[in-house]
Amino acid sequence: MEKATLTFTDVSITVNVPPGTRIIEMSEKVGSGITYGCREGECGTCMTHVIEGAEHLSEPTALEQRVLAENLAGKDDRLACQCRVLSGAVKVRPG
Amino acid sequence: MFPAAATFACPQPPVSEGPVEIVPGVHWIGAFDPNLRSFDTLMKTANGTSYNAYVVRGSAGVAVIDTVDETCSDAFFARLEAVARYDEISVLVLNHLESDHSGALAELLRRAPQAHVHVSPRGLQILRTLLKDAFGLYRISPVTTGHSVSLGDRSLHFLTTPNVHWPDTQCTWLDQDRIIFTCDLFGSHYCDERLFDDLVGDFRFSFEHYFDRIMRPFRSSVAAALDLIEPLAPAVIAPSHGPILRANPGDYLRHYRRLSSPRFGFGAGTDKTLAILYISAHGATAELAQAIRDGAAEEPGVRVSLFDLDRGELHPFVDLIEEVDGIALGTPTINGDAVRAVWELLAKLVDIETKGKLGAAFGSYGWSGEAVRQVEARLQGLKMRLPEPGLRVKLEPTAADLAEARAFGRRLAAHLTGRAPPREIDLADLAAR
Question: Which of B380, B388, B427 sits opposite A28 (nearest CB)?
């Protein structure tokens, strides 16, 4: 099985995760400041800045694209409750 | 005892008093709610409040800026009708969509469906929810800083000022008259029909209290909004609650800047600051606190302070936590729970900005030790980062426990300075956290 790692720089932790893991599933467990609000992709509370490895994340859905735009997100920002780590190394911090 | 009906009905819309001119062509068309005694359950409102809405008339259009609480709609529409026909309204600006400002929105759009709605991008999702199926019936545009709309000889310019105090908040600038419509920013829950700051009673207490309860948790967002507003040097600040500020608007800008600045502008220099606050039933949690303090103090560039929660006042601790970079909170577990003083402190932290601070929990317990994890959950809810799993010790700490507490303190301090070594863990490790 392909390996993936997810690094949360605000708590200096890298987690070895199964491909397909949503960022929010790990961020709460490791104590990162990336926390959820609605958990349904609506509120933008879990905005996450992707420092490295954006290409290893799932493509944003139409819902995520809309919420990112409405929250004036930068090009490297994603919603932790929506996007999944597919492979490789991804490094994030709270957005 | 508060009047039972006060919260639910605008008692006596003083329709006969009509709109109030701010400058020719710009009118206040809001409503007074003198009997409101509790706002959003957040704060008491000892002499009520006002919901301020405005009309701006230009040579080629009329704009309405915000509406009022639904209970006060009659007064709002009566005042609006005194200065404009519904078919003249070309622009509707929604600076903030909380119900006390959007309560008349749906009805206003039914009466003036041609109005072009201007709202912040973040306001769109709330607007969809408010208007439901009618959302698609109207012309609605998201606007940000740099966007403007012309009314002919007047134009409105938008400033994106999020999180003062909702994500959707924005301000609107009328440059020809140098009036800034700030919605909740610069507001007061102070009801006085004389309306202008140079005519009303002494509302300074209400102005400051409003900041403390509504704006303080978003202090950095207020500062960012001021960065946009101060260079405009407005002649009038027109908020959505309380007096319109026209006598010395610069004074209010400067006061807001002070209120949104760090409370302790002295002392710590460039050092990171860690406050360890604890409460101890039999001394075990106090021993842990001291050991954590000793360990953290070994880290260069970190100032560590230690406080017994049981021997201090709540509000100064809240002020302290607002300014420090990190906190470690110690509590015993009593009856399967953190103790009351800890919960009281944690409840008060909603009044300050805590996002991104370092948080940690520790404590001694007798049987089950739930308190540490309960405190951690609350700290995460406050959007703090918790890089170290909480430290739990059964009964009296041993020498090994105290050594681990010192190491815990060292690690917390290292996270503050950015010198914490990176760690790599597997999913299975997380189950143990």
Answer: B380
The domain locations on chain A are 4-94
Structure tokens at B154: 């007047």
A11 neighbourhood in chain B, CB within 8 Å: 385-387, 415
CA A91/CA A35 separation, integer angstroms: 16
Question: In chain B, where does the domain assigned CATH 3.40.50.360 lie?
Answer: 272-432
B23 touches chain A (CB under 8 A): no
CATH of the domain spanning B272-432, picked from 3.40.50.170, 2.10.109.10, 3.40.50.360, 3.30.470.10: 3.40.50.360
Which chain A residues have a beta carbon less than 8 Å from that of B142? 70
Sequence ranges of chain B with CATH classification 3.60.15.10 = 4-259
A31 vs B121: CB contact, 8 Å cut-off?
no
Percent of chain B with pLDDT over 70: 95
- pLDDT tens sequence across B244-302: 999 999 999 999 999 999 988 776 688 999 999 999 999 999 999 999 999 999 999 99
Q: Report whether B123 contacts B131 (CB < 8 A).
A: no
Strands B49-51 and B31-33, bridge-based pairing: antiparallel
Place of tokens 């507001």: B187
Look up the CATH number of domain A4-94: 3.10.20.30
Output the pTM of the full model.
0.92
Query: How many pairs of residues across A and B have Cβ atoms under 8 Å apart?
Result: 82
Q: Which residue has the tokens 């994030």?
A: A92
Question: Of B322, B293, B325, B330, nearest to B418 (Cα)?
Answer: B325
Class of domain B4-259: alpha beta
Residue in A7, A11, A64 to test binding to B, most B beta-carbons within 10 Å: A11
